[in-house]
Design goal:
Rossmann fold, three-stranded antiparallel sheet, 9 strands, 38% helix, 20% strand, binds pantoate
């Protein structure tokens, strides 16, 4: 497995693979990898000859008061995990390589509507930063397909719409959320939790499954269900950012007649913001 920092070298290598007729799968990440990322790489390796994992902590998708500076950079450990998962190339560019003229001068990709609400409402501009860097990664790697985790449900919806709207010749593949034994979704940010917060954190998934159960039992009073879920989270010591029951396709609030629903949650434990989701067909 090779690690490449420059775009020029990446292009040279990938052109060689393409000339030999090899298929290329891309797994975009910000590093500090865990088993969830490894599952994305394994999924890519099942379908592609060459798997490129990008590691880039993208400043454009962080808000002013967020954890850009403290986000863990763990390249050596990430390389070990990627090698074991069957990755071929690591692309770990510098900020200067990606944004040579600086963020203010950078052309941006905005994906309307689906970027609004939920995390988009709490993290203004976040999905513009994601859509921009993912477009650039797609242009740099030119993969046949790219794999994203379903834990970031809204991000996946944003990327799917972007690819559709801009007619990008890339398949977007979603991969299931990987969980700890107690249900907590694996996340790079779980490492921020204190021992006490880590004990409380599984309540996020428990609240999702309890609420999904109520929907499966026939309840359709969505706003009341959302309030009950928020109460459960807040009573356990979390601070709910949002708990929204939405139409799985549109991400708009669920309404009577919707059958495919997704429960989206973001909640703070101390200063750590956890997100998760569960989908249910009623
Ligand atoms: O999901 C992430 O890790 C990031 O948002 C992504 C897709 C790598 C873009 O920076």
């Amino acid at each position: 497995m090779r690690t490449i920092h420059s775009l020029k070298e990446l292009r040279t290598l990938l052109n060689g693979y393409r000339r030999k007729g090899k298929t290329i799968g891309l797994v975009p990440t910000m590093g500090n990898l865990h088993e969830g990322h490894a599952s994305l790489v394994r999924k890519a390796a099942e379908a592609a000859d060459i798997v490129v994992t990008s590691i880039f902590v993208n400043p454009m998708q962080f808000g002013a008061n967020e954890d850009l500076d403290t986000y863990p950079r763990t390249l050596a450990a990430d390389q070990d995990m990627l090698e074991a998962a069957g990755n071929t190339l690591v692309f770990a560019p510098t900020v200067q390589e990606i944004y040579p003229e600086g963020l203010a001068q950078q052309t941006r990709v905005v994906v309307p509507d689906v970027s609004d609400g939920h995390c988009g409402a709490s993290r203004l501009g976040h999905f513009d930063g994601v859509a921009t860097v993912v477009t650039m990664l797609f242009n740099m790697v030119q993969p046949d397909f790219a794999v994203f985790g379903e834990k970031d449900f809204q991000q996946l919806a944003v990327i799917r719409k972007m690819v559709r709207d801009l007619m990008m010749p890339i398949d977007v593949v979603g991969a299931p959320t990987v969980r700890e034994d107690d249900g907590l979704a694996k996340s790079s940010r779980n490492g921020y939790l204190s021992a006490e917060e880590r004990r409380i954190a599984p309540v996020v998934y428990q609240t999702l499954t309890v609420t999904a159960g109520k929907l499966a039992d026939g309840r359709t009073d969505f706003p009341a269900l959302e309030r009950e879920a928020e109460d459960l989270l807040n009573q356990a010591g979390l601070r709910t950012d949002y708990f929204n029951i939405v139409n799985s396709q549109t991400l708009k609030p669920a309404s009577a007649g919707d059958r495919d629903l997704t429960l989206l949650v973001a909640a703070f434990l101390g200063t750590t913001r956890l997100i998760d989701n569960v989908s249910v067909t009623i």
